[in-house]
Write the structure tokens for this entry.
Amino acid sequence: MNPSFDLPSLFYLPLTVQLGVLILLSLLYRKRGVRKHRLPPANIFRCTRCRHLYMDSRRVPLSKCPKCSSLNEVIRR
Ligand SMILES: [Zn+2]
């Protein structure tokens, strides 16, 4: 009997090949995903009137609150 065609290797060989393909695809996907999901730099603001926390991607020192439209200073860049 040929040792490369016994039952365990018939089971494990396709499994190893499929696992290898999956790992390769996940590595490729992760490489692309990092570049795709990178967020633009955003400033974080907290409204002094209604305590609403919001972000503004523009580089401005003051931003209007989307809820009560009062002007607020940036708390984190
Ligand atoms: Zn507000």
In short: Residues 7-36 form the longest helix (30 residues).
